[in-house]
Amino acid sequence: MNMPMRTDQIITDWQPHFPSLFGKHTLALSHSLAASPLFTDDALARLIDAAPRDGYHVNYSQKTPGNPPKRREGEIKDLSGAEVLEIVRTGNIWINLTQPAKIDAGYGDMLNALYDEFEERVPGFKSYKRNMTLLISSPNVSVKYHADVPGQCLWQVRGTKKVYIYPNTPPFLSQPALENLILGQARETDMPFEPWFDDYAEVHMLEAGKMAHWPLNGPHRVVNENMLNVSFTTEHWSDELRRHYAVNYANGILRSKAGFKKLNQNVSGLSYYAKLALAGAVKFSPLNPHKKKVYTVDFQVDPNAPEGIRDIQGHTYSK
Ligand SMILES: [Fe+2]
To answer: Cross-referenced PROSITE patterns, in alphabetical order (predicted)?
Structure first.
């Protein structure tokens, strides 16, 4: 299908053969969103100022070469958004703003525009439960090896980061590890990692104006270059992604509750429909009340502390 020439396009280097790759292989593309006024210092400071406690995470992990240790969770108190940005610029933290569209509808409009464009470009692709998270991170921060449950894209807006993307199959992602992640029995960053996994990773240097979309549940880790980074992730569901979710959800139940060991991941045929029914029955029954996640906060963002964080007495919050 020939795309009409558009001046408002978000993906600027789309090729006619990309629909056959979309969702099945990693696509690293160029986009036009880096220049948006939604990502200036002022816009980011306003978002931080307006974010409620359940609308942000601030994280820290110790600087080490390779895959970093577990991240710590912190809080922002008595600081303006502009002050926080300055601390990110010189410290060792990253901030996730998880609901920018609730604060400013412009982010939601952007989210819809970019998915609408993919739907226009990829025949048969229909996305829903779209979500955007904004990431503001310090120079050289790295994010631990993990996989995400929904479909994912990473969009680079300012700075440069290196993204390692690994195959979404064993040994990089074991079936039980994926099932635990989907069942909510493991944090997404609890996945086993071996340094030699890197030999099998696709490595993309994401500069401002680049984005990547990789196959469902593809494990990945991210390393910032030596500057402030601003990026955002977009998440989505489609009928095809939901089928994979349902079968892995059901497999997780069968493995953990009924002791099954060998479970296929087919998304058609009799076993699939039985699993779909099981996933539906369990998910909406009292067996699986929607669990809130509990976070333990043990630092506060502090402009006068090394790396921008000060240890505090640990306390928890849930959302
Ligand atoms: Fe991720």
So the answer is: JMJC
Confidence of residue 81 (pLDDT cuts 50, 70, 90): very high
Is residue 34 classed as helix, strand or coil in its secondary structure? coil
Residues 265-279: b if buried by 16+ CB within 10 A, e if exposed: eebeeebbeebbebb
* Beta bridge mates, 206: 161
Strand 27-30 with 128-137, pairing:
unpaired
Ligand 1: centre distance to CA 4 (Å): 33
Condensed to tens digits (0 to 9), the pLDDT of residues 190-228 reads 788 999 999 999 999 999 999 999 999 999 999 999 999
Residue spans of the domains in the chain: they are 18-237, 243-283
The alpha carbon of 94 and the centre of ligand 1 are apart by a number of angstroms equal to 14
Cα–ligand 1 centroid distance for 220 (angstroms): 7
Cα 257 to ligand 1 centre (Å): 28
pTM (2 d.p.): 0.89
Ligand 1 centre to CA of 274 (Å) is 30
**For residue 82, what are the CA distances in angstroms to 40, 70, 78?**
11, 27, 12
